[in-house]
Structure formats: C-alpha cells, structure tokens
Amino acid sequence: MLTHNALALILAGGRGSRLHHLTDWRAKPAVPFGGKFRIIDFPLSNCVNSGVRRIGVVTQYKAQSLIRHIQRGWSFLDGRFKEYVELFPAQQRTEETWYQGTADAVFQNLDILRYHAPGYVLILGGDHVYKMDYSRMLVEHKKRGADITIACLEVPLEEATAFGVVAVNDKWHVTSFTEKPDYPASMPGQSDRALVSMGIYLFNASFLFEQLIRDHDDTHSSHDFGKDLIPYLVNHHRVYAHSFQSSCVNMAAGIPYWRDVGTVDAYWEANIDLTTITPALNLYDEDWPIWTYQEQLPPAKFVFDGDDRRGHALDSTISGGCIISGATIRRSLLFSNVQVRSYGIVEDSVVLPNVDIGRHVHLKRVVVEKNCVIPEGLKVGFDPEEDSKRFYVTKKGITLITPEMLGQSIHYVR
Predict the structure, then answer these.
(1) Which pLDDT belongs to residue 413?
(2) Any known ligand binding at 381?
(3) 197 labelled as ligand-binding?
(4) Fold (topology level) of 2-275
(5) Got the DSSP string for 88-119?
C-alpha cells in the first residue's frame, strides 16, 4: 500500500556537460548505456519493479530524444489503474523563468503533484546507473516517522568531496548535511569512509509541498535540494538516512552497484565492465529486469571464416542488428545496428547504434557516437597526441569520436 500511495519524480532536465560531445544533442539521462538501454531506464525500471507506478519525468535541456524514448518505451503502464509515466516539460508554469534548480523544478509542478494527491513523493535523479528496491526505503521511512529520508552510499573518505556528505548518529538520524565539503565527516566507527547522498529523497507529500513554498519565498536560496533545502531541513525537521546497502538489488560480492557515468572515462569503464565474465552490474536477472524501448531487429551476424578474414567477437557484448563481416571484436560493447567491415579490428571500445565501420579500420579504447561512418583505414587509439588534433581524448586516454568530428552532417535527433 505504501508504494501505491507514492509518486516518483525523476529529475531528467540536466545536460551532463562532463560527458562533452555525448550530450551536445541530448540530455544526460537519454545517453545510451549497456548495449540496448538509456541511462534513465534504470531509475524508471527501479520504480516499476518496486511497485511505484505513478511516475513523473521532469525534462528541460534538449529533451526531444528523451521524450521520444519514453513515449515509445514506457507507455505500457495502464492509466485505468492509476499507473503512468507522465512527462513534466519545463513550461514556465509559475513564472516567466525556466527551472532554476532541482527544488524549483519540483515547485513549478506543484499544482500537478497536488492533483495526483500522493501520500509520499520520491525524488530521483535520472542520470545514475543502479538497481534499487524503493519499497524498502518507503517501509523504513514510515516506521521511523520521518519527514524526509535520504538514500546514502558509503564511499572512501577521499572520494566524498565530490558529494553531499551526510553525518548521522547511531539511529541514522541525520545530524548534518554538507554539499561537497573540503574535509568530509567520516562515518561512525569507520574513520576511512563517509556516507554520501545519492540524490534520492523520500518526502511525506504534504511536508514537501510546504517546504517547497517556503524555499521559493526565500530570496537567498538557489532553490536546489542539495545546496539549500536539505541543509535547512536537517536543522529543523526529522531527517533520516537510508543505507543503499539494505535496498540494492543484485550486489556482486556484497558490494552495492551505483555508478555516476558522468564523464567519458566513467561511461567507458561502466560499459566495458559489462563485457567481463562476471560484471558488477547484473543485467541477466529475470526478477529485476531493466525495461526499455527496443526495436525489432535481426540477430547479430558473423560472416567469413578465412585465416585472414574471420568475423568473430571475443569477450564482447554484441547487440541485435549488428553484422561483423570478416572483422575482429575484442573486449568491446556494440550497440544495435553496427556494421564492422572486413579486416577491421575493434578493441576495448564502446560503439553506439547505427555506426558503419569501414574496411581495415583499427579502433582501440574509443567511444563512437551514434550514426558515425568510420572511413576505411582509419586508426584511432594508438597516438593520443595525433588523435587529439581531430577527436576528444580524455586524460585517461579514451578517445571520443562523433559524426561532427568526422566532418559528417547531422540531420536527426539522437
């Protein structure tokens, strides 16, 4: 009954500028991930699998591909049973301004939230990859009589400066919340680890509405949950922390999986991990599936078996519609409708949908954007200095290739 009385609001309006050219034409939650999904499919699937089936998606930055994906892939919920995924685009509902911060994005849709009349509101980010049962957090929130519960992740102390750091007592009551501190507080009894916010907040609905109005009227506020709303609430109301360890689904070796794939390096690493023998993220779990929109495509195809021209893939993940024509794929992840032509070699790479890789191409440690046509004979990933003259190369040596970098025109929405 708690999940039926909850509404989830996924904040999916951000660009994610650290992904550089991957978000030139799409919001970060719409970036493809894992061979057939988009990042936003993970919080959406968590909601559906948890039983929270009233879902709003707040959009703003270059949202067309995100909107199209949700319309095509997430229309299976039945509104007759008050189950839905509803889009909340930025539309200046309260004033002549776009969303000014995460809290303002929710405030500007306050009338819609009141119309749906939930008992609880779950605020989620749309740009992280993880599997979590939100119903466990709801039960804990109810038992504690909390006004707000913050989902928290344990991280090494030296990494905590990039997060909102949560300090708690022995009953997990939050005693302080500091956004990206220079000197983060350690966890009780663990001097080398810190408790950080995952950007997942569970509110009693009436309490949230009151606090959004109060924050909106505060002229000194930037109207952001992490910077303004949460620090204020910690000092005035019943704020508790929820351990992600207790609600994470499919932990590998007891370690909760949560990834911010917000940089090109992190994006490459998380995708390549899926090609390993036992990935940290289990996508094969029938009890907690990741739902998405998927085209009807033919199976992947591997052709030619000569000594110098053999179509094969090793330690790789190959999606539907791909044709490996006399080429070699090693430790790579190929999204749908990728064609790799004869004598090509693709190693340690992530190739997004609808890419055509020409003959004698050799790619190593690259991310290839959708719809690229890789010209015959191109070699990328062996000389970072030379590659950087034409492509984007990260500090860790991952090369990002887009159609624009190849001089190919763009006439589509990604």
Answers:
(1) 60
(2) no
(3) yes
(4) Spore Coat Polysaccharide Biosynthesis Protein SpsA; Chain A (3.90.550)
(5) EE---SSSSS---SHHHHHHTTHHHHHHH--S
